[in-house]
Automatic annotation (TrEMBL):
Reaction(s) this enzyme catalyzes, per UniProt: guanosine(9) in tRNA + S-adenosyl-L-methionine = N(1)-methylguanosine(9) in tRNA + S-adenosyl-L-homocysteine + H(+)
All copies of domain SAM-dependent MTase TRM10-type, residue ranges: 113-310
Protein name: tRNA methyltransferase 10 homolog B
Gene Ontology CC terms, in alphabetical order: cytosol; nucleoplasm; TIM22 mitochondrial import inner membrane insertion complex
EC numbers: 2.1.1.221
Coiled coil: none
Xref: PANTHER family: TRNA (GUANINE-9-) METHYLTRANSFERASE, TRNA METHYLTRANSFERASE 10 HOMOLOG B
InterPro entries: MT_TRM10-typ, MT_TRM10-typ_sf, Trm10_B_MTase_dom, tRNA_m1G_MeTrfase_euk
Its biological purpose: S-adenosyl-L-methionine-dependent guanine N(1)-methyltransferase that catalyzes the formation of N(1)-methylguanine at position 9 (m1G9) in tRNAs. Probably not able to catalyze formation of N(1)-methyladenine at position 9 (m1A9) in tRNAs.
Keywords: Coiled coil, Methyltransferase, S-adenosyl-L-methionine, Transferase
Length: 332
């Protein structure tokens, strides 16, 4: 009879262990101890149900369950201790760095950002995103453009010297507006101007500078008296000179980023070189230059090596010139 009792006890303990694992997965760490107590009660009840008292094998199996229970309790205690130590470490770092990096509430930071943006509206540089060409764009291209607008606005909020942004040729019943609402949280609360008017009728033509990679003139500086225009165009078919021709039709000055003046072509597997950037990348360059007055630093911010360009001083002077020539191609 002893072997039957022992086998029954082992099956019971195996089932109890499985229940214990399920409970550990479904409950939080704070209720683990309570779960263990319930499991102990279950084990005791299982032994009391039979008329025959547990033999030595059953006692050994119960001790095995208790040993695993203690093991789990040690793991839980170690995790709690580790979290407590990490919390104390972060608290100590905040105290030590409070003089260097003062902590501000989110409410204060939002208020500061709003103040900077409103100040830019009256005295900062002005940037128009020309959205009058979106009617030919596909749903995928509209989604990409909406994402670029979100990233551009996010960068402007973080800038120490932000621009004031205009979204021109933009109607609230357009597919792009609906896409911006869908993709960009809080888009309707963005601190910028939205108008259905075209940028060419909104400002005097002599104050406009259309930024296009097809221009012959490199942008030298950012003039607070000028209004800079970026073409809000995502075109996977890569139609050339669309924004350049539009600027010429309205007799508006054009300029390109000084990529050719401060960067050189680098060799890559696809032999690909392009000065066409997303509007948020162009804005990152403009914003960085406006803060630093340094074109190389600004271009490094927005022109990735995937475009096939690197800064002129990025070439290692310690390398043999033959190797440098092999890596860098002359700009035609």
């Amino acid at each position: 009879m002893d072997w039957k009792v022992e086998g029954s006890a082992k099956k019971t303990d195996s089932r109890v262990l499985q229940e214990q694992e399920v409970i550990l997965e479904d409950t939080g760490e704070d209720s683990i101890s309570e779960s263990f107590q319930l499991l102990q009660i279950d084990v005791e009840c299982e032994h009391r149900e039979g008329e025959t008292p547990p033999t030595g094998g059953a006692v050994w199996s119960s001790k095995n369950v208790q040993r695993k229970q203690r093991h789990w309790e040690k793991i839980v205690a170690a995790k709690k201790s580790k979290r407590k130590q990490e919390k104390e470490r972060r608290k100590t770092n905040r105290v030590e760095n409070s003089g260097i990096y003062p902590q501000h509430s989110k409410r204060f930071l939002r208020s500061l950002t709003k103040e900077r943006l409103l100040e830019a509206k009256h005295s900062g540089p002005r940037l128009c995103i020309d959205l009058s060409m979106t009617h030919h764009m596909s749903k995928k291209e509209l989604s990409r453009l909406a994402g670029q607008i979100r990233r551009l606005y996010g960068s402007n909020k973080k800038a120490d010297r932000p621009f004031w942004i205009y979204l021109t040729g933009f109607t609230t019943d357009s597919p792009l507006y609906e896409e911006c609402l869908r993709m960009n949280d809080g888009f309707s609360s963005y601190l910028l101007d939205i108008t259905k008017e075209d940028c060419f009728s909104l400002f005097p033509l002599e104050t406009l500078v259309y930024l296009t990679p097809d221009s012959e003139h490199a942008l030298e500086d950012i003039d607070l008296n000028k209004v800079y225009i970026l073409g809000g165009l995502v075109d996977e078919s890569i139609q050339k000179k669309v924004t350049f021709q539009k600027a010429r039709e309205h007799s508006v000055k054009t300029a390109r980023l000084p990529i050719q003046e401060y960067m050189v072509r680098c060799q890559n597997g696809k032999n690909y070189h392009s000065e066409i950037l997303a509007i948020n990348q162009v804005f990152d360059i403009l914003a960085t230059y406006f803060e630093t007055q340094n074109w190389p630093e600004a271009l490094k911010k927005g022109v990735s090596s995937r475009k096939g360009y690197i800064l002129q001083n990025s070439v290692d002077d310690g390398q043999p010139k033959e190797l440098q020539k092999a890596k860098v191609l002359e700009v035609p």
